[in-house]
Fold each of these.
Amino acid sequence: MSTESPLLSVRDLQTSFPMRSPVLRRTVGQIQAVAGVSFDIPAGGTLGLVGESGSGKSTVARTIIGLEKARSGSIVFDGDELTSLPKASMRRVRRQLQMIFQDPYASLNPRATVEQIIAEAWQIHPDVVPRNRHRAEVRDLLERVGLNPDHAERYPHQFSGGQRQRIGIARALALRPKLVICDEAVSALDVSVQAQVINLLDDLRRDLGLAYLFIAHDLSVVRHISDRVAVMYLGRIVETASQDELFTRPLHPYTQALLSAVPDPKPWDKPAREQIIIGGDVPSPADPPSGCGFRTRCWKAEETCAHDVPELTTRLELHPAACHFATELAGAAR
Amino acid sequence: MALLSVRDLRVEFATSGGVVTAVDGASFDVGAGETVALLGESGSGKSVTAQAVMGIVPKPAGRIPSGSISYDSKDLLAPGVAKGLRGREIAMVFQDPLSSLNPVFRVGAQIGEMFRRHRGASRREARAAALDLMKRVGIPAASKRLDDYPHQFSGGMRQRVMIAMALALSPRLLIADEPTTALDVTVQAQIMDLLTRLQAEEGMSLVLITHDLGVVAGVADRVILMYAGRVVETGPLREVYEHSGHPYTSGLMASIPALEGPRDRLVPIQGSPPDLLDLPSGCSFRPRCQYADEQCAEVEPVLRQLPDRASTHQAACHHPEGVLTDVH
C-alpha cells in the first residue's frame, strides 16, 4: 500500500430511505440501506464490492455519484468532500467519476446515434474535446472499446447486448475519468460475451490507469478483476481483504457460505469440499435483526450475536472481518 | 425406451422482420429418472424447445412445421394430448415465480387448486395436501403461510411454491426453465439442493434448462447444448465438459472465470451471438469459430460420435479433432 492518499475514500457512510405509511401518510421510519460503510480505492486500483440483493451495494454506488443523498459519513474523491460539495463543483468532479450500468438496453437513449450518445458529455464539458474533434474522438473511443468506428451513425437497437455495453463503456470513458463505477456491468450478458467485456475492462485499466469500483453478485467475476474485495450484507461490510486473501482464507461465515454456493463447472477437479448451504433469505433492511445482521442464517450464532454488533476489525493479524468468531473460523476455512 | 423423445423438432415464429426458426431440427431423448441439462445462451432455442414439449408455444406467432415429440409413446404434438398430460404427467417450473403465480389468490389455495381440479378433492383435503407439499419443499412455518399471498413471499420461497405446485400431481417429468436465474447465489444453492433431493425421492425425470454451465455440474447426468436453434453437442456431463468436441462448448468453458487457481486472462468466444433472422450458411457458429473453413460454410454439420470418445458423446462439428486436441 502506498502512503499517498487514496483516490476515493469512503468513511462511515450511511444512506437511508424514508419508510412511508400509506395510511398515516407520513414517514414512519427509515430503511437503513447503507449502515456505516468505509473503504478506500487507490488510483488505478480495483475494489470489488460483493453482496446479494438488498445488501446495499448499489446504494453505495448511487450515493457516491450523488444519485442518493448520504445521511451521514464522508466521501472524499480526489481531495473533494462530495457529501458537502456545492452543485456547481459537483459537475467538475463528476467528470472524473463515471458509471456503467447493468442494463445496456435501458441506459442508452434509443433515439440518439452512438456518436450523439458519446459526444453528449462534451457539450457539458466543452474543454475536454473541442467540437471539431468530436467525430475523430468518437471513432477513437469506439475503436478502443472494440466496436467498428464506421458504426458511429447507428442507433442502439442495431447492436447486440454486448455491443451496447461497449457503447456504455465508451460513453463512460469520454470524459477521461479516473474512477469508473461498474454496477453489475457484466451481469446481464451471456457468458461468452461477458468474458469479452471483462477482458476489455482489464485492458482499459491497464492502458488508461483507471480505478474501478466493481459491484457484482458474481464472485468468480469479482475475483477475476479485483485487487481488493469487500463483502456486504444488510448494509454493512462484513469482510474485506486482498482478492487473494479473501478467496483463499475467508473468515466471515457469510463469505464462506457465499463462496461455497458459487456453482463450480468442474467440481470433480477439486478435493471434495463440504458445501455450506445456509437457510433462509436476506432479512429485510426495513426490519433487520438485532446485533449481527447475519445471525439469523448463521450456523455459528450464539447469544452474544443477538446483542453485540460485531465490529469490522482485524483479529489475530488476519484481515478485517465483522464476526465474533472470526479467529475460530479462520482455521476451519475451506 | 426413452420417456421423452424429440425428433427433428422445428419451431418457427413470425416476427416483423420475417420468420425466425427458433428451433431448427433438434433431436434428443430423456430417459425415465434421468436428469438432463438443456444448455445454451439467449436465443439458442432451449426455452422454446421446452414450450414445444409442454404444448405452450405462443400462438399464432409460433408454429411447429415439422418434427415429432413423443412422451411415453404418446404423440405430444397431436391436438389436445399435451394439454391432457400437462400438470399430471409433465410439469414445469419457470424462471420468474411472481409472474407465474396469481397475485390475488392465497398460496395454499393455489397449490390446493391442483388437487381440486385434477383429483376432485374437497376444499379441506386440498388444503391438507397443500400444507404437506409446502412442508416438503421446505417452506418454514408452512401452516401459517398457507393463507399468505404470493407477494408476501421472498423470491426463493416463491420458487418453492412453484415447485410445490409442479409436484402436486407427482409428474414423471419435471422441466425447470432457469429456475434459479433470478435468485441470489445462496438461495440458488438451496433450490438446486431441493430439486436434486425431490428428483431422487420421486424418481422423476428432470430437465434443467439454464445458461449457467456451473449450476448443473454435479447435478445433471447428461447435457444437451444448443446454439442458434440446433443441438451442437450432447453427452454425459463430465465427458462433455472435460472433452468438449464442439468449439462453442470449449469456448463457453474457457469464458468462465475460475474461483481458484491462477487468474489467467479469459479466452472469450469472438464476435456476437447469432442473429436468427440472418444466420450464416452451413454451420451457424462458423463466424465465431477459429476452425472454420470452406466446408463449414457449405455443409451444415450434423451430430456424430466423436473420435475415440464414448458413443453417447456427439458433436455437430466438421473439425472435432482440432477442438479435442487444442483444449485438452
Amino acid sequence: MTDGPRILVVDDAVTVRAFGRRVLEAEGFVVDEAVNGIEGLERAMAVPPDLVIVDVNMRKMDGYTMLRVLRRDPVLRDVPAIMISTESKDSDREQALLAGANWYIVKPPRPEMLVEAARLLTGRPLGPEGAP
Amino acid sequence: MGLVKKKAGATPSGPAAPDAQVDRMADPLAALEDADASVRRDAAHGLGHAAPPGAVAALARRLETEGDAGVREAILTALARIATGEAAAALLPFLDREDAALRNGVLESLQQMPAEVAAPALLPLLGHADPDLRIFAVQGLGGLAHPGRADWLAAVMERDADVNVGLAAVEALAEAGSPEALSSLETLARRFPDDPFVAFAVDAARSSFRGG
Amino acid sequence: MADTEPDGLSPEDYATLCDFLRERTGLSFTEAKRYFVDRRVAARMQAVGATNLRAYLNLLRFQASGEELQRLVNLMTVNETYFFREKYQFDCLVKSALDELVRDRPKGSRLRIWSAGCATGEEPYSIAIMLLENWGRVDDYEIELLASDIDSAVLERAREGIYDERALQGLPAHLRAKYFQSLRGTAPAGGPRWQIIEDLRESVDFSLVNIADPQQVRGFRGIDVIFCRNLLIYFDDLGRREAASMFHDSLAPGGFVCLGHSESMSRMSSLFVPRRFPDAILYQKPVDGGAP
C-alpha cells in the first residue's frame, strides 16, 4: 500500500494539507506534507516525489520561488507540479506556468479535479480500473 | 597552508570591519542609498534598532527600488523591529505587489509586530475590494494574540462574499480556536453548501478545538 | 530539588507530555529525567504565558509554525556539547561541501569557517580535527577558523581547551592521542583532564561577539561556512530572522549555513536554499548572491 505514486503537498494551511491527504490517499497515492517552500524543498530532496502540489502565498518561501529552485535541481527538475492558489487571474496562471508549474488549480480545491490532475501528471491511468 | 595560525599577541577581538564601512555608517539614512549592498544592509539593520526621525519613510522608499534580496530582508526586519503605526502603514502598500516573495515577506513583518500595532493597520484591509488582500488581512489578524481576534474572524465567516476569505478565517481557527466560534463556522458551511472543501475545513477546525 | 518546585507537573501531566514528545519527536524521557524535563517545561510555559499544561500542549500540537515544539525539543537536547557532536554535519563538510566550495578556486586561496555560538570550543576544535584528518585538500588552502560566543567565561575556557572525559567520549583513541595531552589533576566532575595541543589551539580564532549586534558582526565577511547549531533557538521569531539575514550578509556567494539537527531554515529566513548532500542538509546562499 505504500507503493502508490508519492505526492508532496506544500501549503501553509493545515486544512489544505489535510484535505489533500484525505482525498489523494483514498486514491492510493502516498502523501507527504510541507508548510512552505523551504520545507517543501527539504522534503523533496529527502524523498523525491512523483508530483508536487504547491500553494502560491507562503511565508519564508513562496510557491513560485520553490518551483524555480525545483526546476534548477538536477534530481528534481522533471517532477511535475500543480500550483494551487486563490488567485484566478490569467496573469496568475501565466506566472505559475513560467515558474515551472504544469497545472493550475484555483482554490478551494474540488476533490475530483485534484485527483484527475494527480492521475494525469503521475501517469496513472484514469478511472477506477487504474487503482491497484 | 592548512589551518591558519593566529598571530601571537593579537587581540582576541575577531575580524575588524573595513574602516571605510564604519565611516559610512555615521549617517545611516544616507548609507541606505550607498552603492555597496553590504553598507545598505547594515544601515537598514541599524535603523531597525535606533530609528531617527525619517527612518521609516527612508526604509519604505528604499524598499520600492531595492533589488538585493539581503538588503530587502534587512529593511523588512528593520520595519518589524521599529513596529510603530507608521512602520506598519509603510508596509501595507507592498502587500499587493506582483512579487510573491516581497508580499509574503511584508506580511511576515506585520505578523512579527505587536498585536496592538499590526491590528489597526490590517483591519481596514478586511474591507478591501481585492479578495487576495482580504485573505492577507485575515491571515495577519488570525495570527495575533488580540482580544478582538475572535470577533473579526467570526464576521469574516458570516459575511465575506469570497469563499477563500472565509476559509482563511477557518484556517486561523483550526490553528487556535475555541467553541465560541462554532456558530460562525456553521454559518459559513451553510453559505457555501456545495463546496466539499468548505465542509472538510469547517469539520477540521471544529474537531481541533473540540478534540484538543 | 523536584519537590520544592511549586509548578512541577503532576505524574499524569508528566506522562501525557512524555507520550506526546515521544510520538511527535521520538525523544523519550524516563521518570529519571523528571526534574530535567519539569524545569524546562516550566520555563517554556512561563515564557509563552501558558497557565496549565493543557494550554501548553495545545500550543505544541496546533501551532502552525511548530515553533514552540522546536524550542522545547531543543531545550531538551542542548547542554550536551561534546567533540564530534552531530558528526554527520562535519562529515558533510569534509566529504561534500568544501569540495564544492573550492571547485573553482586556485590552490592557496583562503577558506573561512565560522563557528557561531561556539561555547566551550568543542565545535571549532572538532572542525579543525575533521579538516586535518579527513579533508584531503586541507594543505592546498589557507583555512581560517573563526569561533565566537556572547559569553566571555565560556570563551576563556574554549581558549584554554581543557576538557573532561565526557566531552571526549566520541573521539577515537588515536585522535585523542594525537590532538590532546593529558593533564595532571582531576576534572571538577572527577576523572582525568585533557588539553587540546597548542598547535590546534592557535588554529582557532576565538572572539567575543553578540550576533544580534550588527556592529559586532560587521567584521565577519566572505565566510564560506557558518556553523550555528542550537543557538538561534534562544531567539524570538524576529531575532532569528535578523540573525539569518546577518549570516546571509557574512557569507560569500554560495556559502553554507549549518544548523542544529532539529532546526530548519524553513522557520527562520527566506534567503537560503536547502541543499541536500549525502550526509546532511545545509542551507546555501545563492551562488549569484541574490534571492533564491
Amino acid sequence: MKNTDSIWHVTGRSVYVDDIPEVRGTLYGAIFSSPVAHGRIRKLQTFAAKKLKGVKAVLTARDIPGENQIGEVIKDEPLFADKWVHYCGQPIALVVAESDAIARLAITLIHIDLEELPAITDAREACQKGLLLCKPGVFSMGDTEMTWRQCTHIFEGRADCGGQEHLYIETQGSYAIPLENGGIKIHASTQGPTHVQKIAASVLNIPMHRVEVDVARLGGGFGGKEDQATAYACMAALASKLLHCPVKVILHRMDDMKMTGKRHPYSADFKIGLSEDMRILAYEATFYQNGGAAADLSPAILDRSLFHATNCYYIPNSKVTAYSCKTNLPPNTAFRGFGGPQAMFIMESAIAMAARELEVPARRIQQKNFLSEGDTFQYGQIARKVHIKKSYQIAGQEFGMEKMDREIKKYNKTHPYSKKGLAVMPICFGISFTTKAMNQARALVHIYRDGSVGISTGAVEMGQGVNTKILQTAAQSLSISPRQIKLETTNTTRVSNTSPTAASSGADLNGKATQLACNKLAGRLKKVAANLMEVAIGDISIRDEFVWIKEKKTGLSWQELVNQAFLQRVCLSEQGHYITPHIHFDKTTAKGHPFAYHVYGTSVWEVTVDCLRGTYTIDKVCIVHDFGNSMNSSIDLGQLEGAVVQGMGWMTMEELAYGQDGKLLSNSLSTYKVPDIYSVPAELKCIALEAKGPKEAVLRSKAVGEPPLMYGIGAFFALQDAIAAFNNAYTFRFDAPMTPEKALLGLYSK
Amino acid sequence: MISFILNDLIIQTDEKSGTPLLDFIRYRKHLRGTRIGCREGDCGACTVLEGRLEGTTMVYRSVVSCLMPLGNAQGKHIVSIEGLNTEILSPVQQAIVDHDGTQCGFCTPGFVVSLTGHATDQQPSSPHRVIASVSGNICRCTGYKSIERAAISISNVLKDKDPADPIGWLVQHGFLPDYFTGIPEKMHTLQKKALRARMARTLLAATQEEQFLLGGGTDLMVQKPEVVAVSVPHMLFDRADLKQISADQGDCIVGASVTVTDLHASPLMQKLFKRLDDYVYLIASEPIRNMGTLGGNICNASPIADLAIFFLALNSKVYLQDQFSGNFRSMFLKDFFNGYKQTALKPGEILHHLSFSMPGDDILFHFEKVSKRNTLDIASVNTAIGLKMQGNTISEANLAIGGVAPIPLFLKKTSEFLTGKSVSAQLPAQAAHIMDTEIAPISDIRGSEKYKRLLANRLIHAHFVKLFPKQ
C-alpha cells in the first residue's frame, strides 16, 4: 500500500504549519538571541524595537506568567535567557509584529550589553573542568582488568565523530490561536505534542487541559523536533496569550541552524584486547558526549550509547563509561539513532584499528565476534532471535563479498590515481524507549454511522509512513477497505499523555493500541451480527466488509452492521491502551531487559577515491536487513534507503563547524552540505532477511526508522580502506566525517 | 507595475521588483505548495517554472523562486505546483507516487516542478538529463533512490515526445494542464500590457534612482535579501543586448546576462570546449544555472567564482559600458579585480560582455573544481588552465585559481613560468611549486589553509594528467 499522503504531497496540497490559512489579525514573532556563547546580560534595550511601526510587543523572561523553564527531565533550560547566556543563539526576547519582515527588522534594533565570558566548546575540556549535565553512566560485564593479561593483542586509540544538523526542510515553527475559556490551540511542527502541551501549560501557568496541541504532519523531524520544537511553540503560545491574538513563529533557516541542537559530537578513548584467534576478549571505552548548554535529551541519549557500545558483538568483558559534558553550544538533542551511531562508530574504530595493526581485514574480526543466540548483552538482556550471523552470511553469498574484494584489489593495482575501498558494517539496534514509562500508547477509534472510520493516535506523521501503517493495521483488524479509514491529526485533546514519536517505536506502540481498540470494536460488532443472524458469535466473522457465518458470506454489509449496532445503542467508539510487555531496566545495576526486540543486519560498502583530488564516490551499498514480516515493503524500503543515505551523509560530507568563540560557522545550506541526488550510492541493493518478526512488533513488522542509519558508518571505513590502498604510510585516524579535505590530507600524509 | 502570467492568470502588481517571487506566490497569492526551505537557492523546495515566448512556442526553465526578484518575472509565464495540478495526477506526479518518491512531502512539489520542467525541455530526455533536472532539489528524508527510479521512468515516457510540438504533446499526455496551449496567446496580451507598464516605469525611473545592479539574483538575494526585497534594482537579466553568445572575427563574445545554462546550451561553446558537460556538472544546480549570469558571477567578484576562473584562463577581456553615455571601455579580466569583492567597475557602469580569442586546435583548456560535496556546492579550490601548444612546447599559458586569494586569481608567475616550456613529467610539480608562492589561502569553512595549498597543488597536477594523459 502506498503512503496515504502521497497524493497530497505530489500536488502540494499537504498542509504544514506555515500552510494553515491564517486567522485575521495574525501576528508574527521573530527571536532575538544571544550573540555570544557565554556571558552575563547587563542590560537589554528594547525601546527602539518597540517603537518601530507595526511592532506589537517585545517579550522577555519577565513577561512569562508561569515558569521560565522548558527543561523536562532536568530543569536547566529557560525559555528566555534572563541573566546568563550559555550558547550563541540562545533566545532572549521575542518580537511580535504585524509582519515577519517588521519583526525581523525590529530584532536589529534591540541592543544588548553583555559581559562576555570564556566559552567551552570541547567536551573533553568541559569534562576536565567537571562540567557535566548529569551523572556519568557506566555499563560493565565480566572483568576487563583481569582479562587484559589473557589478551594476545591489545590496542588503544581515540575516536571522534562530529555532530549532525537535522536539516528537516520544514524549519521549526508553530502557530498559536487563543481560545475561549483562557485556553490556547497550538499548531506545532513537533514530534512531541504532549511535551509542547505540558511545557506550554507550565510557561503560561494554566492547566494542561487548556492547551490543545494539534499536529497534522511534519516536513521532516529526524529527532530534531522531539524536544526542540517546544521552545518555539511556547513562544507563540506566550505571545498569543498575552496579546490575545493568533501568533505565528516560523524560524528562518539560519536562525534554526543557529538556535537548535544537533546530533551530539562524541570523542572517545578505547582499548580493545583480542585473543590469538581474533576473539575480542575485552573492550573498554570512555565516551565524552558534547551535550551543549542544557540537558535536553542528552542523559537518555547517553544511555543509548551505552546500550549499543558493543554493537552486534559478544564481548565477555567490557566496561564503558560515558560523560555528558556541558559546553557552550546549543543543547544537542535526539537525532535518528539517538546515541547509538556514535557508540557503534567507536566500537568499529577499535576493530578497524586492530585489523590495521594485525594486517587482517576488519571483517575477519567482526565475523568472529558476532552475537549468538542466548548470549548476554552488556546490560543483562539475553539475546533472542539473533540474526546477525545469518545476515552476514547472506550478504557474503548474495553479493559475492570475497569476489568484490578480489576485484577491488585488481582495480587498485591497475589504477594509480584511483583506489577502491571495501567495508562491512553490521548492526544491532534495540527497539523500545529506554525510559520504561514512555513505552505506552493510546488510540481512539470512531466508527461513524456510514461505516467510515476515524482514528486518532499519539503518533506524529513525519514522512516515515506511520499513519499508513496504522491505517493498514486497522483495516486488517476490522477487515474493511483502507478507503473507509482516515487518520486524524495528532491532537492532545483527542489522545492524551502521549510519548513523542521517536525511538522507531511510533508504529509499534500506536499500531498496537489501534489494534486493541479495533479488536474490541470488531468483537462488539460480531456480537450484534450474531444476534441479528441468530447464530453463535464464534461462527461470525467479518471479511472484506461483509459478515460471514462460518465459511459463508451473508448479505449483511459492514455499513448495515454498523448502522444496526448504532440503533441497538452499541458504542461505536473505543480507546486502545497498549504497553510494551516484559521490559524492565534497573538503573542502579545497569541490568535488565530494556528492549522489546532487536533489529539486525549487515551492509557492504564499496567506494572509489579520486587520489588526485581527494573526492570520492560511493559506488555500491549492499544490505541484508531484518525487517521481520514487513507490513509495507515500499515504506520500509524508503525508510531504509533514507536512513542509509542520512548515515552516509553524517560520515562523509556533513561537517558542523563552530568557531573557537562557539559561533556556528556552518550556518546555512551553502556551508553545511547534506547529500544531494548525485551523492547517493550509485547502487543500493537490499535483501530482506527471511525471519519471522517478533510479536512485540506490530503485525510482526519490525521497527525500521533508526537501525539502517548505522549502516552509513560503513562509508567511513570503506573510504579509509581506499586511502590506505593509495598511501601505505597513512595512519588510521578515526575522525569522522571523512570530508574530501580529510581524505586528501590522508592520501598525502607521511 | 510588473506584469506576468502566474499559472493561468495574468498578474499586474505594484510590489517592489526586488521582492522575492517566492513571497509573492506564497503570501500574496496564497499558493502554499511553493515551500520555503532555505531562502538561498540550495534546497529547491520553492522551485517554479519560468516560461518565455520564443517565436510561437513557450520555453520553460526551472528557477528557485526564493532568489528570483519579482522584476525578473516581468513578461513571463510563472508556473507553480498549483499550475500543474488537474483533476488527475500528471505522469510526473503519478511516477513519484508509484515509485514511493515522497516521504515527508515538504520538498515534493519542488521535485514535481523540476521534473515537469525537464519534460518541457526541447532537447531529448535522457537518464543523465532527467537527473540533472533535480540536481537542485534536496530531499532530506533522502528518498533519492526512489526519486531516481521515478525520474528514469518519466524519462522513458518522454522518449515518445513530439519534438515538433512538445507543449502540445505534453498537454495531450497530461503532463501539463490544458490551459498551457493558450499561454502563447496570453503572452501577446501580456506583452501589450507590459509595454504600457514599461512606459510608466520609464517615467518612474527618471524620478527614482535605481539603487544597484541585479542580474539573476542568485548571489545578491542571498547576501542581502532584506535590502533587495524593498528595492527597485536596475534589472539586467532580460536585457536583450546582454544575451549574446557569438563569434566575431576569431573572437568569441559572451554577454553579461548570459546564464550558465545559456553557455551550456550554446553550440558554439560546446564546439569550443569538448568537456563542457563535465564542467557544468560541477557548477551550481540546474535552477541556479538557469538564473546565474556571467555578469553577476564576475561582478560579485567572489574569490571562488567559477565563471571568473574559467574565463581568466582564456585571457578574456571585459567590456564595460557607461549607462549614461553608452561609451565602452575594456580591460583584461585579470585586471578587473581590485581586491576582495572589489572591481574596476565605476558607478554608472555595467559589465556588458566579455570576449576571448576563439581557441583553436592548438589550445588546450581544462577546468577543475573541488568542493565538500561534489555537486551543488561552492568550491574549496577551483582552477582553469589554457595552454597554447606548439608541438610539445607551451607557447602561451594562462592559469587561474580560485579560493586561495582575496580575488579570482590569475597566476601570473606560474603562467609565465610555463610559457616556453616543454611538457614533461616534472613540469606540473615545478609549476605547482611556483603557484604555491603566488597564493595566500586562509582557513575558513571551505577548508584549512593546509588543505587548500595541497589541493591547489594536486589540481595543477590534475590539469596535466587530464591534458597530457600519456605523460
